[in-house]
Amino acid sequence: MPRYALTLSYDGSRFFGWQKQAGGTPTVQAALEHALAGIAGHPVAVTAAGRTDTGVHALAQTVHFDSDAVRPQQAWVRGVNALLPAGVAVLQVQETDPHFHARFDACARSYRYLLASAPVRPPLLAGRAGWTHYPLDTAAMSRAAALLEGEHDFSSFRASQCQAKSPVKTLYCARVAESAGLIRFDFHANAFLHHMIRNIVGALVYVGSGRLDTADFAALLACRSRLSAPPTFMPDGLYFVGADYPPQWQIRQPEIPEWLW
Fold first, then answer.
1. Was 10 annotated as part of a binding site?
2. Exposure winner among 18, 65, 95, 247, fewest CB in 10 A?
3. How far is the C-alpha of 244 from the C-alpha of 170, rounded, in Å?
4. pLDDT given for residue 261 in this prediction
5. Which of 121, 148, 158 is nearest to 232 (CA)?
Protein backbone atom coordinates (compact mmCIF):
# COMPACT_ATOMS: atom_id res chain seq x y z
CA MET A 1 0.00 0.00 0.00
CA PRO A 2 1.39 3.45 -0.89
CA ARG A 3 2.81 5.50 2.01
CA TYR A 4 2.56 9.27 2.29
CA ALA A 5 4.53 11.80 4.32
CA LEU A 6 2.40 14.71 5.45
CA THR A 7 3.47 17.96 7.11
CA LEU A 8 1.03 19.46 9.58
CA SER A 9 0.88 22.74 11.53
CA TYR A 10 -1.38 23.28 14.53
CA ASP A 11 -2.33 25.47 17.45
CA GLY A 12 -1.96 23.21 20.47
CA SER A 13 -4.16 25.37 22.70
CA ARG A 14 -7.21 24.00 20.87
CA PHE A 15 -6.40 20.33 21.52
CA PHE A 16 -5.63 17.95 24.36
CA GLY A 17 -2.28 17.04 22.86
CA TRP A 18 -1.35 15.01 19.81
CA GLN A 19 -2.22 11.47 20.84
CA LYS A 20 -5.70 10.02 20.27
CA GLN A 21 -7.62 9.38 23.49
CA ALA A 22 -10.73 7.46 24.44
CA GLY A 23 -14.08 9.18 24.80
CA GLY A 24 -13.84 11.55 21.86
CA THR A 25 -11.41 13.97 23.52
CA PRO A 26 -10.30 16.50 20.86
CA THR A 27 -6.72 15.68 19.89
CA VAL A 28 -4.71 16.47 16.77
CA GLN A 29 -4.29 12.82 15.81
CA ALA A 30 -8.02 12.14 16.08
CA ALA A 31 -8.89 15.20 13.98
CA LEU A 32 -6.35 14.32 11.28
CA GLU A 33 -7.32 10.66 11.05
CA HIS A 34 -11.00 11.61 10.74
CA ALA A 35 -10.27 14.10 7.94
CA LEU A 36 -7.97 11.72 6.06
CA ALA A 37 -10.57 8.94 6.27
CA GLY A 38 -13.10 11.32 4.73
CA ILE A 39 -10.89 11.77 1.66
CA ALA A 40 -9.50 8.22 1.46
CA GLY A 41 -12.86 6.51 1.94
CA HIS A 42 -11.39 4.09 4.48
CA PRO A 43 -10.00 4.29 8.05
CA VAL A 44 -6.53 5.88 8.19
CA ALA A 45 -3.96 5.61 10.99
CA VAL A 46 -1.18 8.18 11.28
CA THR A 47 2.20 8.16 13.04
CA ALA A 48 3.91 11.43 14.04
CA ALA A 49 7.56 12.42 14.33
CA GLY A 50 6.94 13.60 17.88
CA ARG A 51 4.01 13.61 20.27
CA THR A 52 3.09 17.00 21.73
CA ASP A 53 1.30 17.66 25.02
CA THR A 54 -1.79 19.76 25.63
CA GLY A 55 -1.12 23.38 24.71
CA VAL A 56 2.05 22.66 22.72
CA HIS A 57 2.07 23.88 19.12
CA ALA A 58 3.67 22.52 15.94
CA LEU A 59 5.08 24.47 13.02
CA ALA A 60 5.96 21.47 10.85
CA GLN A 61 4.95 18.14 12.33
CA THR A 62 5.75 15.21 10.02
CA VAL A 63 3.41 12.22 9.96
CA HIS A 64 3.09 9.20 7.73
CA PHE A 65 -0.01 7.27 6.66
CA ASP A 66 -0.89 4.51 4.22
CA SER A 67 -3.67 4.57 1.66
CA ASP A 68 -4.43 2.80 -1.61
CA ALA A 69 -7.01 5.46 -2.53
CA VAL A 70 -6.13 7.14 -5.82
CA ARG A 71 -6.43 10.87 -5.19
CA PRO A 72 -4.77 13.96 -6.70
CA GLN A 73 -2.19 15.48 -4.38
CA GLN A 74 -4.34 18.55 -3.77
CA ALA A 75 -7.08 16.32 -2.37
CA TRP A 76 -4.69 15.27 0.39
CA VAL A 77 -4.03 18.95 1.14
CA ARG A 78 -7.06 21.10 0.36
CA GLY A 79 -9.59 18.32 0.70
CA VAL A 80 -8.26 17.22 4.10
CA ASN A 81 -8.00 20.84 5.27
CA ALA A 82 -11.67 21.37 4.42
CA LEU A 83 -12.50 18.59 6.91
CA LEU A 84 -10.12 19.69 9.67
CA PRO A 85 -11.20 21.95 12.55
CA ALA A 86 -9.85 25.47 13.01
CA GLY A 87 -6.33 25.59 14.37
CA VAL A 88 -4.82 22.74 12.33
CA ALA A 89 -3.85 22.50 8.66
CA VAL A 90 -1.94 20.26 6.28
CA LEU A 91 0.94 22.16 4.68
CA GLN A 92 2.06 19.54 2.16
CA VAL A 93 1.85 15.84 1.26
CA GLN A 94 4.23 13.66 -0.74
CA GLU A 95 4.26 9.98 -1.62
CA THR A 96 7.29 8.37 -0.02
CA ASP A 97 9.09 5.06 0.36
CA PRO A 98 6.79 2.40 1.90
CA HIS A 99 9.45 1.75 4.57
CA PHE A 100 9.67 5.38 5.73
CA HIS A 101 8.69 5.89 9.38
CA ALA A 102 7.98 9.41 10.61
CA ARG A 103 9.07 8.68 14.17
CA PHE A 104 11.85 6.09 13.97
CA ASP A 105 13.60 7.56 10.92
CA ALA A 106 13.89 11.06 12.42
CA CYS A 107 17.57 11.70 13.21
CA ALA A 108 16.97 14.98 15.07
CA ARG A 109 14.19 17.26 16.25
CA SER A 110 13.92 21.00 16.92
CA TYR A 111 11.84 22.98 19.42
CA ARG A 112 11.42 26.67 20.08
CA TYR A 113 10.05 28.34 23.20
CA LEU A 114 8.77 31.93 23.13
CA LEU A 115 8.68 33.83 26.42
CA ALA A 116 7.35 37.26 27.33
CA SER A 117 9.07 39.01 30.23
CA ALA A 118 6.79 41.86 31.30
CA PRO A 119 5.23 43.28 34.48
CA VAL A 120 1.73 42.51 33.13
CA ARG A 121 0.69 39.33 31.32
CA PRO A 122 0.31 40.18 27.58
CA PRO A 123 -3.31 39.20 26.78
CA LEU A 124 -2.77 39.01 23.02
CA LEU A 125 -0.05 36.39 23.52
CA ALA A 126 -2.23 34.11 25.64
CA GLY A 127 -1.62 30.54 24.52
CA ARG A 128 1.11 31.68 22.12
CA ALA A 129 3.96 32.55 24.49
CA GLY A 130 4.97 31.80 28.05
CA TRP A 131 5.12 34.65 30.54
CA THR A 132 7.03 35.74 33.60
CA HIS A 133 6.82 39.04 35.47
CA TYR A 134 10.50 38.82 36.40
CA PRO A 135 13.03 40.93 34.45
CA LEU A 136 15.43 38.42 32.89
CA ASP A 137 19.14 38.54 32.13
CA THR A 138 19.30 36.90 28.70
CA ALA A 139 23.12 36.87 28.70
CA ALA A 140 23.15 34.81 31.91
CA MET A 141 20.53 32.44 30.48
CA SER A 142 22.54 32.07 27.28
CA ARG A 143 25.67 31.12 29.24
CA ALA A 144 23.75 28.54 31.22
CA ALA A 145 22.05 27.11 28.12
CA ALA A 146 25.45 26.58 26.47
CA LEU A 147 26.29 24.10 29.25
CA LEU A 148 23.56 21.81 27.90
CA GLU A 149 25.14 21.30 24.50
CA GLY A 150 26.70 17.91 23.91
CA GLU A 151 25.83 14.48 25.28
CA HIS A 152 24.44 14.52 28.82
CA ASP A 153 22.22 12.64 31.22
CA PHE A 154 19.19 14.95 31.34
CA SER A 155 17.47 13.28 34.31
CA SER A 156 17.23 16.67 36.09
CA PHE A 157 14.92 17.82 33.28
CA ARG A 158 12.94 14.60 32.83
CA ALA A 159 9.27 14.19 33.79
CA SER A 160 8.51 11.38 36.22
CA GLN A 161 6.15 9.76 33.69
CA CYS A 162 8.77 9.79 30.89
CA GLN A 163 8.96 6.43 29.11
CA ALA A 164 12.27 6.95 27.29
CA LYS A 165 14.68 4.03 27.71
CA SER A 166 17.60 6.33 28.50
CA PRO A 167 17.91 9.90 29.86
CA VAL A 168 21.12 10.39 27.86
CA LYS A 169 20.56 12.64 24.84
CA THR A 170 22.77 14.77 22.59
CA LEU A 171 21.83 18.44 22.39
CA TYR A 172 23.33 19.98 19.26
CA CYS A 173 22.13 23.50 19.95
CA ALA A 174 20.73 25.38 22.98
CA ARG A 175 20.45 29.10 22.36
CA VAL A 176 18.74 32.06 24.01
CA ALA A 177 18.13 35.37 22.23
CA GLU A 178 15.76 38.34 22.24
CA SER A 179 13.66 38.93 19.15
CA ALA A 180 10.68 41.23 18.53
CA GLY A 181 10.21 41.85 22.24
CA LEU A 182 10.19 38.14 23.12
CA ILE A 183 12.88 35.88 24.53
CA ARG A 184 13.46 32.94 22.22
CA PHE A 185 14.87 29.58 23.29
CA ASP A 186 16.00 27.24 20.50
CA PHE A 187 16.85 23.57 21.02
CA HIS A 188 18.04 20.99 18.48
CA ALA A 189 18.81 17.43 19.60
CA ASN A 190 18.85 13.82 18.51
CA ALA A 191 15.85 13.25 20.82
CA PHE A 192 14.07 14.80 23.80
CA LEU A 193 12.65 13.51 27.06
CA HIS A 194 9.09 14.14 28.24
CA HIS A 195 8.77 17.77 29.44
CA MET A 196 12.50 18.24 28.88
CA ILE A 197 12.20 21.63 27.16
CA ARG A 198 9.67 23.04 29.62
CA ASN A 199 11.84 21.90 32.52
CA ILE A 200 14.94 23.45 30.99
CA VAL A 201 13.12 26.72 30.32
CA GLY A 202 11.89 26.79 33.92
CA ALA A 203 15.46 26.41 35.17
CA LEU A 204 16.79 29.04 32.76
CA VAL A 205 14.14 31.50 33.97
CA TYR A 206 15.49 30.94 37.48
CA VAL A 207 18.96 31.80 36.14
CA GLY A 208 17.69 34.88 34.31
CA SER A 209 15.88 36.17 37.39
CA GLY A 210 18.90 35.61 39.65
CA ARG A 211 17.47 32.74 41.69
CA LEU A 212 20.17 30.45 40.25
CA ASP A 213 23.60 31.32 38.89
CA THR A 214 25.53 29.51 36.16
CA ALA A 215 27.33 27.31 38.69
CA ASP A 216 24.01 26.33 40.27
CA PHE A 217 22.66 25.43 36.83
CA ALA A 218 25.73 23.30 36.08
CA ALA A 219 25.29 21.53 39.42
CA LEU A 220 21.62 20.92 38.62
CA LEU A 221 22.52 19.23 35.34
CA ALA A 222 25.23 17.17 37.04
CA CYS A 223 23.08 15.97 39.95
CA ARG A 224 20.71 14.12 37.56
CA SER A 225 17.75 14.52 39.90
CA ARG A 226 14.42 16.17 39.15
CA LEU A 227 13.93 16.69 42.91
CA SER A 228 16.47 19.53 42.89
CA ALA A 229 15.06 21.35 39.87
CA PRO A 230 12.66 24.32 39.50
CA PRO A 231 9.03 23.64 38.48
CA THR A 232 7.99 22.70 34.96
CA PHE A 233 7.22 25.84 32.93
CA MET A 234 3.89 26.45 31.17
CA PRO A 235 3.31 24.84 27.74
CA ASP A 236 1.94 27.96 26.04
CA GLY A 237 5.13 29.11 24.32
CA LEU A 238 6.43 25.71 23.19
CA TYR A 239 6.59 24.94 19.46
CA PHE A 240 7.67 21.70 17.82
CA VAL A 241 9.57 23.20 14.89
CA GLY A 242 10.15 19.97 12.98
CA ALA A 243 12.13 16.77 12.50
CA ASP A 244 15.26 16.09 10.46
CA TYR A 245 15.52 13.03 8.23
CA PRO A 246 18.44 11.41 6.35
CA PRO A 247 18.59 12.48 2.67
CA GLN A 248 17.71 8.97 1.50
CA TRP A 249 14.06 9.53 2.40
CA GLN A 250 13.83 12.81 0.42
CA ILE A 251 11.37 14.34 2.88
CA ARG A 252 10.70 17.94 1.91
CA GLN A 253 10.49 20.55 4.65
CA PRO A 254 8.23 23.56 4.06
CA GLU A 255 9.43 27.09 4.69
CA ILE A 256 8.05 28.46 7.94
CA PRO A 257 6.41 31.89 7.40
CA GLU A 258 8.20 34.75 9.16
CA TRP A 259 5.18 35.67 11.25
CA LEU A 260 5.31 32.27 12.96
CA TRP A 261 8.76 33.05 14.34
1. no
2. 247
3. 14
4. 53
5. 158
